[in-house]
Amino acid sequence: MMEYRNALAEDPGSEPNTLYVTNIREPVERSLSHFKYNARWDCEQMVKNESFVPTLKNAQPIDRWNETGGFEPYPCDVPFVFRHCAVNCYIQAFSGQSCSETNWQHEYLLAQRRLFRYNIVFSYKMFKDPFYVKAVEGFFGVEGFNQRRTDMFCGPESHEANSMFPLSFSFSHVLKLEKLNSMDEKFYEEATSCGWGEKSNNYNFPKVNLTRLKPHENRTVIGRT
């Protein structure tokens, strides 16, 4: 998703010549994926400590993954970043608030206002639909959108460790996460309720005009970045 530390300085919609884009995922699915990637074992240890070997004994238990800061409540006086988070992560990220005195109602409204300042919000699950992918490619004027590799920090190490020791968890823990993430679930449903249903063969995304990106005759292109 968005909202890393360096991105907080620029508010979505503040620059008229900037296209603001974000991508969100079903909250409980995202929470479980986050646990497997960077919480079950520490990413820093897996990448930088050559003597560290992931095992079931040094793995964190999934049953403890049930707080706003992952294994513990996120500090109220610290700006939120997506390092560890299991509960209401989108509300925290978009509102900038990690604690609530209104059962997340006030923070929900703050997050909603921020979300609506983005030009486009992509749904992670929709990238399984080839028609959706094609519409996104047309929007950006690129091809092979779903075939590009992502070089996540500790991605290969995390994938290998989870392949060696597949994660198992109880259905009751999933239900618990769903209940704890009820406000995030509401936020996600609202953000992705575009009326298309699960699949469509006609996503009405605007298409980029590639002629606008061509250099003018009086300009010289000296390099690409």
Could you characterize what this model shows?
The protein is mainly alpha-helical and 225 residues long. Helix content is 35%, strand content 4%. It has helices at 27-38, 43-48, 89-95, 105-115, 130-140, 155-164, 171-180, 182-192; strands at residues 21-24, 120-123. It has a two-stranded parallel sheet with strand order 1-2. Helix 3 (89-95) packs across helix 4. Residues 1-7 have low confidence and may be disordered.
Quick summary of this structure?
It is built from 8 helices and 2 strands. The protein has 225 residues and is mainly α.
Write the layout of secondary structure elements.
Elements: E1 21-24, H1 27-38, H2 43-48, H3 89-95, H4 105-115, E2 120-123, H5 130-140, H6 155-164, H7 171-180, H8 182-192
Parallel strand pairs: 1-2
Helix pairs in contact: 3-4, 4-8
Which features does this protein show?
single chain, 225 residues, mainly alpha, two-stranded parallel ribbon, disordered N terminus
Question: What value does the average pLDDT take?
Answer: 86
Gyration radius from CA atoms, angstroms? 20 Å
Helical proportion, percent range: 25-40%
Topology as H/E string? EHHHHEHHHH
In total, how many beta strands? 2
Number of helices: 8
Please identify the oligomeric state.
single chain
Query: What spatial form do the alpha-carbon principal axes imply?
Result: globular
**Amino-to-carboxy terminus distance:** 23 Å
What are the low-pLDDT stretches, counting only 5+ consecutive residues below 50?
A: 1-7
Overall SS class = mainly alpha
Strand content: under 5%
Largest sheet: 2 strands, parallel
Strand order of the largest sheet: 1-2
